[in-house]
Amino acid sequence: MKNFPYIKKITLIIFAASLIFCLGLGIGIFFAEHKEVEKQTKKLEKITQFGSFSINDKTRYSKTFPKVIATAEKNHNKNTKAVPLRQNQNYRFKKKNQLPKWIDNSISAFKQPGFSYIAIVLDDMGLNKKILNEVVQLGGPLTLSFLSYAPNLIEQTTIASSKGHELMLHLPMEPLGNEDPGPGALLVDMKNMELNQTLNLALETFPNFIGINNHMGSRFTANSKLMEFLISSLKKRGYLFLDSVTTSRSVALKMGRRLSAPVVARDIFLDDVDSEKEVKLRLAQTELIAKKTGTAIAIGHPRKATLRVLKDWIDDLGQKKIQLVPLSTIAQIRLDKIN
Question: For the structural domain made of 64-337, what CATH number should be given?
Fold first, then answer.
């Protein structure tokens, strides 16, 4: 029993040593796990940064490439006084601390002091894959409006956005006369439920577009009741409406002001007459409007004559103090002026 104090002392020492060992082991495991989590997080961030996505994933597949393009443009202009025209955070259509889709899905642009701004919208996209490949190789950014009934829209719009072009949905609407606007058109005799179902189907064909413009629609866009329904529906969903102005009786702009909704209208049709001479004339008119008012919106189609003229025209813009921008940029400038 005389040795009991020594045995007790040795036991306490062994217990304390074991406790210290276990504590050190636990701390080591914690930091090892933390380091592994941090490593995996950085790996995930790296994958996301370079735009890993599935073509069937309808989330934000078009976001990576526009950001890269914007960065490249910014670096290209690093010796100038160019400033980003990217989304105005105080914009009046901002709701519940979230930007509407027409801004969130837009392509970044950089403002050049002393320049005028032109947006070129090409309608009827999506029906010809070969033409699409020609269009996306043009300098840009262009705004490409894809027909809601075109095939393989996910694939085609992925290609377009990967080249830095802005996306729109080209929605058929009832015209005057007997011309067929195509499947999935909004018609004047539709009730609100049918209009809503037809609109919803069109809006789900592909993601990341900024809004819609009318394909035909001279009868539909002149109807105040129907346009109130359409524009209020688009506003709720965060999209803008570009009036193609297929009739002088269109009420789109008037309804946009009344509903405080993002609505803009085109200024010039480029290729009503399918000839290079006519397209050149219309582009000259577009330039005059841009010089006079600061902005201009022209609508054309992916026709051979139009694309040939646009290729040369885009190359010469810098000398004219004109900047080609996506439609969303023009919309922000114009809507801010009436705010």
Answer: 3.20.20.370
Q: Are 170 and 148 in contact (CB under 8 A)?
A: yes
- Euclidean distance between CA atoms 339 and 335, whole angstroms: 6
Which amino acid does the sequence have at 106?
A: S
Terminal C-alpha separation, the chain: 95
Ranges of H-type helices in 191-303: 192-203, 224-237, 252-259, 276-293
Exposure string over 51-85, b if 16+ CB within 10 A, otherwise e: eeeeeeeeeebbbbbbeebbeebeeeeeeeebeeb
Rounded to whole angstroms, the Cα distance separating 79 from 56 reads 40
Q: pLDDT tens per residue, the chain (339 residues)?
A: 455 555 556 666 666 666 666 555 555 544 554 444 344 334 333 322 222 222 222 222 233 233 322 333 333 344 445 555 544 444 455 554 589 999 999 999 988 889 999 999 999 999 999 999 999 999 889 999 999 999 999 999 999 999 999 999 999 999 999 999 999 999 999 999 999 999 999 999 999 999 999 999 999 999 999 999 999 999 999 999 999 999 999 999 999 999 999 999 999 999 999 999 999 999 999 999 999 999 999 999 999 999 999 999 999 898 999 999 999 999 999 998 765
pTM of structure: 0.75
Q: In a 10 Å sphere around its CB, with 0-12 CB exposed, 13-18 middle and 19+ buried, how is residue 28 labelled? A: exposed
Say which residues have a Cβ less than 8 Å from residue 309's Cβ, sequence separation at least 6: 276, 279, 280, 283
CA distances from 244 to 38, 231, 252, 269 (A): 51, 14, 10, 9
CA angle 85, 87, 89 (to 5 degrees): 125
Domain spans of the chain, in order of start: 1-49, 64-337
Residue 154, burial from CB neighbour count under 10 angstroms (0-12, 13-18, 19+): middle
Q: Are 181 and 190 in contact (CB under 8 A)?
A: no
